[in-house]
Amino acid sequence: MKRIFSLLLVVVLVFGTTSVYALSWTSTSEPCKTYTINIVKYELIPGDVGNSFRVNPNTTARKGEYAYYSIEVYNADNQKVDPGKLIVTDMAAPTNLDNGLYAALVTGSRPMLTYSIEEKTSLQELHYNNMPITISGDTVTIGKLVFTRSVSGVVTDVHFDGNILELTKELTALNMTPEDVYNGKVCMSNDVLIQNFGMICKQTATSKWYNDADAIKNITIPKTGDAPLNALFVALVTLVTTGVAICFSCRFKQKKD
Fold first, then answer.
1. Cβ-count burial of 188 within 10 angstroms (0-12 exposed, 13-18 middle, 19+ buried)?
2. pTM of the full predicted structure?
3. For 65-120, how does the pLDDT look when each residue is reduced to its tens digit (9 = 90+)?
4. For residue 30, what are the CA distances in angstroms to 27, 141, 180, 197?
């Protein structure tokens, strides 16, 4: 009986002193790669013998005009690469000019482009303590632990071949407790697993061809004729009210006489 009580006391102490870090696992991944993204804006300079281009970081372009630019991306070794994708807003798809520049027709009031680089570790590359993490449908195996997760990724159960103390020790190494698991505080969606045991890196660069003050804002314009009709209604109400007051005054005077 004393041994059982001591075991329960140890379990309670373990639960009471373990911090809750269900969504803050220690990452075992390498740091993200860094890139240098250069977006250079140009303005068109018409000439007698042909057009030329001049670098102008402050140039703008309105709807129906063209935006001119160049993009160069370099990795940490200063090698030119193209690992990302281009996202254009209020601009048509760019065309490549003979001089290496790009031209894009402006189609709206807020022309801008964004070059985005996103890199993720694949699920097959995830490891924990030099052991691969196995993901199969609604089960995730991390070391000696087999977790069951819902469609949204929330863990609903954990299977372990051992006693409660050994289970608690294994979960503590992952910065979680049995209470976290059975209270729905642990999320093991694919993105969370990659974030904690791999890497999700994103880097962007944006350039725009409009001034904030020049951008078209949504304003409410009264319907044609609303103002005259409102004025006419007010005038009619005033006229009727005045007439009623005069009539009442006359009848009151006649009664008095």
1. buried
2. 0.58
3. 999 999 999 999 999 999 999 999 999 999 999 888 999 999 999 999 999 999 88
4. 9, 22, 28, 10
